[in-house]
């Protein structure tokens, strides 16, 4: 047998198979990295939502203390207190799962909290007619804490939206979206038309 007829012991499909195997490994680790990053961004959104929820919970607690302080005032308008209490109770019933936030659920939460803001604003305006409350040290302390909490809420909402923007841009971008079918777009906080307004807790105390 001549040397020209000697065939290599390596089949012709080996090199292509090795190349395909290497590409498969690269794609696998690439997809794992994409999914891990998506998980990290999703956790960032959940953490930011926790900060939002904590800020609103702090406001709810302060409102409870505010109501107790105000209801002791003689001849105070009880209907205003009832409105605030009911709005606060309704807001606490709206629960949101940060890992699966839907636009509808976030809108419901936003609307409920807007109801609290609106009722609280009316309460604080009504208080202006009661000079004894405007000199009550406990009430003044609650007023300052509410003002601070409203700022915290606005900051927490802004940071939440920033985290959502990063997350959405990542999971919706091609080719990431090819590997992230289970990661859905998350909604943003939006102002409720004619409802959500920062609570004015300033008084003309003389």
Descriptive notes:
By secondary structure, the protein is mainly α. It has a single domain (31-179), classed as de novo design (two linked rop proteins). 68% of the residues lie in helices and 0% in strands. It has six helices and no strands. The longest helix is centred in the first third of the chain and has 57 residues, at 14-70. The chain is rod-shaped, with a radius of gyration of 29 Å. The termini are far apart.
Task: Please specify the SSE layout and strand pairing.
Layout: H1 14-70, H2 78-92, H3 103-127, H4 131-134, H5 137-172, H6 176-179
In whole angstroms, the N-to-C terminal distance is 116 Å
Fill in the CATH topology.
de novo design (two linked rop proteins)
Query: What is the count of DSSP helices, taking H or I runs of 4+ residues?
Result: 6
Q: What is the CATH C-level name? A: Mainly Alpha
Order of helices and strands: HHHHHH
Radius of gyration: 29 Å
Record field, number of beta strands: 0
Helix content: 55-70%
Instruction: Tell me which CATH architecture applies here.
Output: Up-down Bundle
β-strand percent reads: under 5%
Main sheet record: none
Number of domains: 1
CATH homologous superfamily designation? LemA-like domain
- Which residue ranges are poorly predicted, with pLDDT under 50 across at least 5 consecutive positions? 1-6, 194-206
Round the mean pLDDT to the nearest integer and report it: 83
Shape: rod-shaped
Structural class: mainly alpha
